Amino acid sequence: MKIAKILAVTLRVRNMKASVQFYRDALDLELLYGGEGSVFLHWMGILPFLI
Q1: C-alpha to C-alpha distance for 22 and 20, rounded to whole angstroms
Q2: Which of 2, 13, 22, 44 is least buried, going by the fewest C-beta atoms within 10 A?
Q3: pTM higher than 0.85
């Protein structure tokens, strides 16, 4: 079976604030839902290193 694309990835983190800052600032992803105080986030962006 060949994987065509990845639609979602779930990560459990200890520090949501630091995680939001990393994905937003270092990886330049756009936060669509949630925030530093949320328990769930939705990001928009391309992660070419995962492909």
Answers
A1: 5
A2: 2
A3: no
